[in-house]
Amino acid sequence: MGRAARPRDPPSLPLMIKPALSLLLCGLVFLAGCGRAPEAARDAGGGGKRLTVALLPKSKGNAYFISCRAGAEKAARALGVELLFDGPTDTDPAKQNEIIENWITLGVDVIAAACENREGISTALRKAQARGIKVITYDADALPDARAFFVNQATPEGIGHTLMDEAARLTNAEGEFAVILSTLTASNMQEWLKHIRARLAEKYPKMKLVAVRPCDDQKDKAQAEATTLMSAHPNLRLLMNICSPAVPGAAEAVKQAGKAGQVKVIGLGLPNENRRYVKDGVTDSVILWKTEDLGALTVEAAVALARGALQPGATTFRTAAGASYEVKGDQILLGQPFIFNRANIDQFNF
Amino acid sequence: MKAWPRELSVGLALAALLAALAAFAPGFFAPQPLLSLAAREAPVLLVACGAAMVIVCRQIDISSGSQFAVVSVVAGLLAAEGWPPAAVATAALALGTALGALNGFLVAGLGLPSIVVTLATMVTWREGLRWWRQGAFVNLPDGLQWLGLGQTAGQWTLLATALALLTLLALAARHLAAGRHLYAVGSDAEAARLAGIRPGAVTFGAFTAAGALTALAALMNVIQSPQVDPKSGTGLELKAIAAVVVGGVAIAGGRGRLAGVLLGLLLLATVGPALTHLRIEAHWEKAIQGAIILLAVAAEGARRRPA
To answer: What are the E-state strand segments in chain B?
Structure first.
């Protein structure tokens, strides 16, 4: 495995410094106020060396991944492990591979990657595995043989059902609604729509999906589509927007048509893009997952994998903090999506 | 009769579509949503006017969508910084003019093919914007929307501005020397040169004017909502070129009227909403628009052959 040759082990470090370092780190953790100093001390002191987890975002400037990082850092502090966070400035698959190569040279213990290019990154991840580095993916998967687990933030079924259930809740499960999506051909859109339709057929007989319109993933086009949908279907009760630019686009159309409250707006999106409409009462619910939780679960799983606590074939994953997550095959499921609304949106900034 | 064949056929197609809507989905004509849709197309009209000038000049500009996005984002950021609207507008127009002038310089000054030049600038501006902004929306300050005019007055103003500019440009094309030079260069650059026209200067002018029009269009779009989507304008160049071609402007240059461009845009822009109103699946929208464009190009080909 070549573990002995990995340059991460600092052989030149005098033995006396390590306890001192541990103490210092305990102090820092304690000062950080997370209240887990004893655990951190056990990990850092007892194990001898601190585990290093390297977290790779699709792009490091993106608010979504910055929020993932915040959760990851909290988990890393709690677990007493070191967290590296680096990624391309822009979404750049080649740069992702470069960073992984650097981490292989550096000899990190675990790499957790959100993959921009599924095939492209897999070669680099396999190489890391061959050098004894544990690999997991989160947010966007690599090829299955290039990683041990994928931390899956949301299944298509979970997304479809949450959207449909939320639409039903807001309309008392009655009346017409329409869907705005990115394009009619995008595979994720088709997958979500399939689960939306299935849930509709199964549970809500008094609701009717009257139109499905594409917005080419643009807010302005979504606004025009929503305007037309409302005039073509005067009894429309709700606009369900399943690509993120469509949510504020539809909300602006509803606001301009003076139909706030009368036509509900929900969708998959980011809190920051929808904040003003949620606060104005135009948009009722924005559905996504808690990105901080995704970052935290990724680090928890990475550490458990490195320590042998998480093995292939597991059906549940219990974090050090005591939370339990379902494991389906080689995917760790974050669980049901989260609903951002007027009551809670101010707690989130991404 | 022979002078207006294309405008007439496009006008008839549009009239037929509107008649079908009046018969089967009169809800289409509800004033408020219709005004909103028209206001949303007003910026597209200006971009199409720019595209028409470039195409009449026997060139093509496929970078206008990217210019639109760059100007929108920059204008949004300046407004968010607290710049007064007039300063934002001046800066945005200067930027758009500069982007257009760059295309013009590369094509007319260096003699590079416009399809390659504008493909390069299209990709560069779009990807540069992605790299710079990471897809983040720009939140505009309160009060910028509709420039404080209120929604209905704001929408009418946008519509009136676009139509007034279209009229002015159409008149300029007919009656100003610069307008006639555009057609002369597009018909036969060599003959134009022998007649004392500088084809390079005319081409440069067309690209620069297109950039300025695109910038104005971007501003007219930005003020319609409280946020700027950095992906805005994606595919706008094709929408504009399609309107130009359907409107009867010869893709080989030298011929065409802005009145036709207006009709072409109205026809293409009505298809989508019409399908929604007629309860027809969205799958058909791009197919029908494609068929309209194909018909227009085929008609153009048929017209050129016998001559």
So the answer is: 138-139, 227-228
CATH code assigned at B242: 1.10.3470
In this structure, is residue B39 part of a structural domain?
A: yes
Q: How far is A281 from chain B (nearest CA, A)?
A: 16
Which residues in chain A touch residue B277, judged by CB atoms under 8 angstroms apart? Answer: 228, 231-232
Q: Is the dihedral of CA B214, B217, B223, B224 positive or negative?
A: negative
Does residue B107 lie within any of the structural domains? yes
* Contacting residues of A for B40, CB less than 8 Å apart: 220, 223-224, 227
pTM for the predicted model, two decimal places:
0.83
Specify the CATH class of A156-288 in words: alpha beta
Is A17-154+291-335 in CATH node 3.20.20.140? Answer: no
DSSP H/E element including A137: strand A134-138
Give residue limits of the domains in chain A: 17-154+291-335, 156-288
- For residue B56 the two structure tokens come to 């009449």
Nearest CA in chain B to A214: B282
Partner-chain contact B227 A248, CB within 8 Å: yes
pLDDT tens, N- to C-terminus, chain B (307 residues)? 455 578 898 999 999 999 999 999 999 999 999 999 999 999 999 999 999 999 999 999 999 999 999 999 999 999 999 999 999 999 999 999 999 999 999 999 999 999 999 999 999 999 999 888 878 899 999 889 999 899 999 999 999 999 999 999 999 999 999 999 999 999 999 999 999 999 999 999 999 999 999 999 999 999 999 999 999 999 999 999 999 999 999 999 999 999 999 999 999 999 999 999 999 999 999 999 999 999 988 888 787 766 4
Sign of CA dihedral B69, B71, B72, B76: positive
* Distance from the A123 Cα atom to the nearest Cα atom in chain B, whole angstroms: 25
How many domains would you assign to chain B? 1
Q: Is residue B307 part of a domain?
A: no
Whole-number Å distance between alpha carbons of B269 and B257: 19
